[in-house]
């Protein structure tokens, strides 16, 4: 090492001049390449409170012979494993169940390594390997942390074998892949031109500076992440919680959940097989990659646009006319927007959207066809300012854009330009052709919490000491005035008050006012999906949450409880005794599915 530093020092003398590449290099000079540092330490991944989640550490692997006979019972005694454990560990390490023609690697502890070394003469066919590998200190956050591609080759091979068509869609390296270059760093190289006496005469190429791998400090609160994963467990769905003031993601759950070490651990091949073949597709990164109809939570967006375009006012009332669309809630007359949101009245929002689409501007006279096309295009323009129908640009791999229909889309789908509002009314209740991702749903809640603006949601708050990537510091504004967002909040607060669709999920007993909106998404192929978006405290929001549970039924009874428990856990640090039984019931259900 000392010799290397001396060489580096000699080659970096300040009175040496860099050669002009355009000049002819003396052919008697030798071109040399000197490594400034030959060992890179990959950066760690830490949560928002600096708890280390992923680190590079030495691991010992015992490589078993490919086909040679092996006395597993004797080996088990050496390792201190019983007969059941040794057979199970070997079976778990086999990439393809029932085969034995593949080199098997078993992870060992330091004590087990010492035992193997003591008996190495008795086991000449075994190989003890020492590697630097990524080690996960948490069992939470698999969809966030991801994995190194270099350590996931066995998983890639398994994925290609079992799900060829879905391999690339499932591939999700998480932050390990997204920030790979920054985590890895790069070696520095000097390029001196040296004469026969060892004297330097400039350089033959540009030198590169050594850069150690940088730590990633996440926005994730690992305790909140672990808690949220316990609430969802084996259910299909997602939960995204973020700080609306900064766009920092506090918890990011894609369920069913699994241990992040599973993908790269050498003795978890059997578990990977189960993940790849599981009908609930746990390897699918749902909040980023899966776009679904949002259901009634989208009424918030439609109401904001209708207020901005003066199609309604906060005091506008509509009859609950079920000849227009079915209303699943029995409620008093919705004589204002606040009551329309509180009761989530479908006919109310049918008529809100109808006032937007069917109005005919004076400039178009009696041309209702042109008016509908123009109004739908205008609606879409305002809705897209929420970051919908486009990627938000988060630091999550393979983010889907979602979808908002255009007039041209309906011209083609309906096979006529003379379609009517009646044929597209499902947009008014967040159904039909509209699709949003979980990240977009959470960001939508953050926009309302901020009264019209947002920072792009992101998972990394600092790369080394430099803060987040510059694009996450850029504030984005919608086309809706803040006063029109403020008009939504009383209705959202009323949702969790007596008579509201989610009144059972109120946190008023602990002094927290929650603003939210429930959603029940119709599903023709099974039970309805449950959705909820909200933020707290209502007048000074520090957390916004979106929950989506597939085939879970009503948003009020399935999604809202999960969301408010996460809010309470984050804001108070604990759950009030009143909701403890409720919490246990949700966690037990999450385990059973």
Task: Spell out the key features of this protein.
single chain, 593 residues, alpha+beta, Beta-lactamase, 6-stranded mixed β-sheet, 5-stranded antiparallel β-sheet, 18 strands, 15% strand, globular, disordered N terminus
Name the average pLDDT.
88
Intertermini distance: 56 Å
Largest sheet: 6 strands, mixed
Poorly predicted sequence stretches spanning 5 or more consecutive residues: 1-19
The CATH class of the domain at 293-529: Alpha Beta
CATH architecture of the domain at 293-529: 3-Layer(aba) Sandwich
Structural class: alpha+beta
The percent of residues in helical segments reads: 25-40%
Overall geometry comes to globular
CATH topological fold name of the domain at 293-529: Beta-lactamase
Count all strands and give the number. Answer: 18
Our count of helices gives 22
Radius of gyration from the alpha-carbon trace, in angstroms: 29 Å
Beta fraction: 15-25%
CATH homologous superfamily of the domain at 293-529? DD-peptidase/beta-lactamase superfamily
Structure summary:
With 593 residues, the chain is α+β, with helices and mostly antiparallel strands. Helices cover 34% and strands 15% of the residues. The protein has a domain at 293-529: Beta-lactamase.
Describe the protein.
- This protein is an alpha+beta fold and 593 residues long.
- The chain has a domain at 293-529: Beta-lactamase, CATH 3.40.710.
- It is 34% helix and 15% strand.
- It is built from 22 helices and 18 strands.
- It has helices spanning 2-11, 72-79, 83-93, 110-118, 142-145, 153-162, 167-170, 174-178, 180-184, 222-232, 269-277, 286-289, 299-308, 337-343, 346-357, 368-384, 407-414, 438-450, 482-486, 489-495, 555-572, 580-592; strands spanning 30-31, 34-35, 45-46, 52-63, 105-108, 127-136, 189-190, 192-194, 200-203, 216-218, 237-243, 248-255, 453-454, 460-463, 476-477, 515-521, 529-536, 543-549.
- Strand 3 (45-46) and strand 4 (52-63) form a beta hairpin.
- The longest helix is centred in the last third of the chain and has 18 residues, at 555-572.
